[in-house]
Design brief:
The chain is α/β, with parallel strands linked by helices. Helices cover 39% and strands 12% of the residues. The longest helix has 20 residues, at 290-309.
């Protein structure tokens, strides 16, 4: 009898974590490596949020909390949804977990039965299909097209839905492409969902505040209120508030679902870190002045990276509407050879040889379900991004037919 669970056979390790770890390992050996794999802002957590955590420690807020979160944070989440998304979730309809990933996992664990299908547009965040598989469901992946800015069409969604579809998983702005859906584009998808009342909507809004130019963020239940009773709206403080390590994610949704997730969390982790929850209260209720400033910096970095990558031989890089990623195609380099004679047959070959030759760590697109592309996180300094792009240009120019 095998010792490890057979469910592990359906799951792959996280490619983004693996790339970041490989970059750290090479740095420890003395290699000059620029890591562009991590989805993590390089900004420090704002001082007012850090002070709130320190004050919570000094007040003795270091005990177990209610499973679904401290009342003050659930109230702040309720107000945030109303203020920013025009969504009425009472505090009882919210839950706080140990990061957005934990919220997603709990929702799947609470709802999926063997054979239930979850429709996931590709490219997707690497953990989506793995979570579905771990929870006993079946991921149904729909490939999008670069020519359509990696956005799912209503027609493709309609074709993917079957009687076994339990969830449609929606992420805008997207990790890994940065693609963000306009109100009209969201409405086209929600119109499809209205025709299929057995399909629930799980929306990952983690990059909500990172949209550029005059783009306006919207979330599905805001665009189509008729979907409110079968939508869970997921968010967190990691990206906009530079709080990745604090591990606070949250959601609003139907009370029955939230109660089921609370039950699972009670047997799993209990509540999230008490100190991090008090910091999140300040993040949501306190000043938001730094968000547009950080957004402007990210937009400048996006423009720098897109421009320089489009000057590299064989690369094509669309301009994304949000998040802090670009998802360039290396299709023009497939079949070429490195100076050592290695043939670039896949996007994984491309990123592996790039790391070896130039010390730039990026993530291959096939890990996100669609290649030949690769993901770059531009959540680092202009100087490092410019140097990394110079190295990428040099590597691309070195490849031979």
């Amino acid at each position: 009898m095998a010792f490890l669970a057979s469910s592990l056979d359906r799951v792959k390790p996280s490619a983004t974590i693996a790339v970041s770890q490989k970059a750290r390992d090479l740095k420890a050996k003395g290699r000059d490596v620029i890591g562009l794999g991590a989805g993590e802002p390089d900004f420090d957590t704002p001082d007012n949020i850090k002070r709130a955590a320190i004050e919570a420690i000094n007040r003795g807020e270091t005990k177990y909390t209610p499973i679904s979160g401290i009342p003050q944070l659930r109230e702040a989440i309720s107000k945030k949804f109303k203020r920013e998304n025009n969504l009425d979730y009472s505090p009882a309809q919210t839950i706080v977990s140990t990061g957005g990933k934990h919220v997603l996992f709990n929702a799947f664990m609470a709802t999926l039965n063997p054979g239930d299908e979850v429709v996931i547009p590709a490219p997707y965040w690497v953990s989506y299909p793995e979570m579905v598989s771990l929870c006993g469901g079946t991921p149904v992946v729909i490939e999008t097209r670069q020519e359509e800015n990696f956005k799912l069409t209503a027609e493709a969604l309609e074709r993917a839905i079957t009687p076994r579809t339990k969830w449609f998983l929606f992420n805008s702005p997207s990790n890994p492409t940065g693609a963000a859906y306009t109100r009209d584009e969201v409405k086209a998808l929600t119109d499809v969902l209205l025709r299929h009342p057995h399909v629930w909507v799980m929306t990952d809004d983690m990059y909500e505040h990172l949209v550029y130019g005059d783009f306006t963020f919207v979330t599905p239940a805001e665009v189509e209120p008729s979907l409110y009773d079968r939508t869970i709206t997921i968010n967190g403080v990691s990206k906009a508030y530079a709080m990745t390590g604090w591990r606070i994610g949250y959601a609003g949704g139907p009370l029955e679902l939230i109660k089921a997730m609370d039950m699972i969390q009670g047997q799993q982790t209990s509540g999230a870190c008490s100190i991090a929850q008090w910091a999140a209260v300040e993040a949501l209720n306190g000043t938001q002045d730094f968000i547009p400033k950080n957004r402007e910096i990210f937009q400048g970095r996006r423009d720098l990276v897109v421009s320089m990558l489009n000057q590299a031989n064989g690369l094509e890089c669309p301009t994304p509407e949000g998040a802090f990623y670009v998802y360039p195609s290396c299709k023009g380099l497939i079949g070429r050879k490195t100076e050592a004679g290695k043939v670039i047959e896949t996007d994984e070959d491309f990123v592996s040889e790039l790391l070896e030759a130039e010390g730039v760590a990026v993530v291959h697109g096939s890990a996100f379900g669609l290649g030949p592309n690769f993901r770059i996180s531009y959540a680092t300094s202009d100087a490092l991004l410019e140097e990394a792009c110079n190295r990428i240009q040099r590597f691309c120019a070195s490849l031979r037919a």
